[in-house]
Amino acid sequence: MAHIQLPEGMPGIVGPLAFSPETAKPLLELAEVLLRAPNTLASAEREMIAAHVSYRNECDFCQLSHSAAAAAHLNGNYDLVEQIKVNPEGADVSDKLKALLAIAGKVQQGGKQVSAADVALARKLGATDKEIHDTVLIAAAFCMYNRYVDGLATWQPREREAYREMGEQLAHQGYTRDRFRETPRAAQA
Amino acid sequence: MAHIALTEGLPGIRGPMVFSPETTKPLCELVQVLLTGPHSLTAAEREMIATYVSSENDCYYCQHCHGSTAAQHLGGGERNYEFIAEMKRDFKSTGLSPKMKALLNIAGKVQKGGKHVTTVDVERARQVGASDKEIHDTVLIAAAFCMFNRYVDGLATWQPHDADVYREIGEHTARLGYVGRDYKKPLEAITSRQESSVKKVAGS
Questions:
Q1: Contact A33 B5 (CB under 8 A)
Q2: Does B203 have pLDDT greater than 80?
Q3: What CATH number does residue B37 fall under?
Q4: Contacts of B152 in chain A (CB under 8 A)
Q5: How many CB atoms lie within 10 A of CB A8?
Q6: pLDDT in tens, A150-186
Q7: Helix B132-154 and helix B43-56: axis angle, to 10°?
Q8: N or C, fewer C-beta in 10 Å, chain A?
Q9: CA dist., res. B192 & res. A104, Å (int)
Q10: Residue B177 zone, left/alpha/beta (φ > 0; ψ -120 to 50; rest)
Q11: ipTM
């Protein structure tokens, strides 16, 4: 049971978002800008950073929903997303993305863990200042979302199947649509 | 030196904020809703939660900005600043209300990780009068500062160790809030220091 009275049947962050619409607005706008606005990093890459950080923070709802969103951007390639979470070094992605994932992993531990060498390596592999900035902020933001979701002990389905439809919606319709506040069909079943 | 090229002379989060206006908008709106405006917790209390979490995360800039803003909300005197320093060191020994102590305990758990918050922590807060909204807002303030602190330190921003800088920031923020501000504007405490060091060099 959640620590506070949340609307029934809403998984993860969806409950607290409905509980507190005035904070939901900037929280969803932030996710939309970070993960879906035009960027030299593909949405799939940014969702993978979000999934990786959420996995490291052991937040089931966030890691499964953003894995599903990343996979939806990748035509359903869940294998790649799984690899990114567990062992990004061995995944079939660019060296630049691997360097950015390493920075994101440092941010997850604490901001001061990011070293000049981490940043120099990313830059050597082609990362721009904006890409480094956005990686740090995506990782930092998921250290917030994960704590929000787990700190209130929200209800979180554990099966990947429950997130497939949510992932499609997040990938293709985004975070700021009104429909986000409706209960996904998979969760109602 | 910061990890990316940021505008010179802007301390802490101000550099990244000016670097990335499209993310600054929701970030400022979030902190505005959480820390300012009408609420059953005073602005000073909410700024104290932000300060405590930033101190636990060892983020120099955030703990001094928000500590100063909290002190300004309490009157802005030297003893208010001392109280904030004491609150960061050991809030349990302060004269804060039992409700605030229970909420700070929850905030400290969130700082470690969301799963650290227990039913017992929440029950205790509720027994001393905390509402669902106060518990929700405490969790979200603490979570948000785990983001802001990582943003500020993860980019290795410039964080001057100068009490006048934070006093000026606290005075402005307690009065003006977070949205609709010009964060590009240099702080007087910083420009006056630069001018005096230029004069020193010119006179030597």
A1: no
A2: no
A3: 1.20.1290.10
A4: 111
A5: 8
A6: 999 999 998 888 999 999 999 999 999 765 555 444 4
A7: 50
A8: C
A9: 37
A10: left
A11: 0.96
